[in-house]
Design brief:
heterodimer; A: 160 residues; mainly alpha; 77% helix; elongated; B: 145 residues; 5 helices; 0% strand
Chain lengths: 160, 145
């Protein structure tokens, strides 16, 4: 992440953040698009934090409209956090078959929820919308309804 | 702040803000090291670390390195506390008698949490004795604006 010291904060943000968004979406597709093992999600969770906190650093540049994007990232981060919590618990407790089953079921549910959230986050045109907005254009993330429809469409596509 | 603010001035302003927030969370968590306070502290550490990384070229390398090292250590200790908080909360939430966690297991986790909490409080005591926030502010020249 190289800044251009001769430019303003605003110019730097508009050059840097669209590139970060591209990298972030690519990472998400890599980790959540396929069937990667949940242990590998740690890196993507860290990536989510880095992206979110970098965006927050430029909040004064974008103003309150940025909050919608930050919220979307925060929701994804929470879903990633829940998967991570199960992994932490697995490493922390003495095992018995009952608990093992309970944890496996819980982890599976959280992973399913995470993948659904990712499909909504990365639904049709979202990356473009993010990049356009972060580059200084006027765009906004899809509404809940349009995202849910896109996620449903994407899930149907994945099944079929 | 105008949209024309130079990136250097902007960086100083943001890091000043983040350091103030971090110092507040360090003291809150030391006073009451509960689950939420520890979580908030970890978030403010990560925000500050991200600022250090993004704006690193404006600060002395050795100062950044030293601060990063201290913060990483704080993250490690608080991670041990948080892991136990997550597990204890999970065990407490298991409802049926067949799923009840063993008392010994809960006790062990509580004792471990207590030990890490003492490490954390001692770490904050050392940081506070050295007035870490003033030192870092000087080291990073955050008073320039």
């Amino acid at each position: 992440m190289k800044l251009n010291t001769g430019q303003s904060a605003s110019e730097n943000a508009r050059a840097l953040l669209p590139k970060m968004a591209r990298k972030y979406f690519d990472a998400g597709r890599k980790f959540l698009g396929g069937k990667r093992p949940p242990e590998e999600l740690h890196d993507f969770r860290m990536e989510t934090k880095r992206f979110r906190y970098t965006m927050e650093l430029f909040r004064p540049v974008y103003g309150p409209n940025l909050d919608r994007y930050l919220k979307a990232l925060h929701e994804l981060q929470s879903a990633l956090g829940k998967v991570s919590d199960y992994q932490v618990i697995e490493g922390m407790v003495a095992r018995d078959r009952n608990l093992e089953r309970h944890l496996q079921r819980g982890l599976k549910g959280k992973l399913k929820n995470l993948r659904q959230r990712w499909r909504a986050f990365d639904s049709d045109g979202e990356l473009k919308r993010w990049r356009t907005y972060l580059a200084g254009g006027h765009s906004r993330p899809g509404t809940k309804r349009s995202k849910a429809a896109a996620a449903k469409k994407s899930a149907t596509r994945a099944r079929g | 702040m105008s949209n024309k603010t130079g990136i250097h001035d902007y960086a100083i302003e943001q890091m000043n803000r983040l350091l103030t927030a971090l110092a507040f969370e360090v003291h809150s968590a030391a006073k009451k090291p509960g689950t939420e306070e520890i979580h908030n502290l970890r978030v403010s550490i990560r925000r500050f670390l991200q600022g250090l990384e993004l704006f690193s070229e404006f600060f002395p390398k050795w100062e950044v390195k030293k601060i990063r090292k201290m913060l990483k250590r704080m993250l490690q200790v608080t991670s041990s506390i948080r892991d136990r908080d997550i597990t204890l909360e999970f065990l407490a939430g298991r409802e049926s008698a067949a799923q009840m966690p063993s008392t010994a297991q809960v006790k062990r986790l509580q004792q471990e949490r207590g030990a890490y909490q003492r490490q954390f409080v001692e770490m904050v005591r050392r940081w506070t004795a050295r007035d870490f926030s003033s030192k870092w502010r000087n080291g990073l020249s955050l008073r320039a604006i």
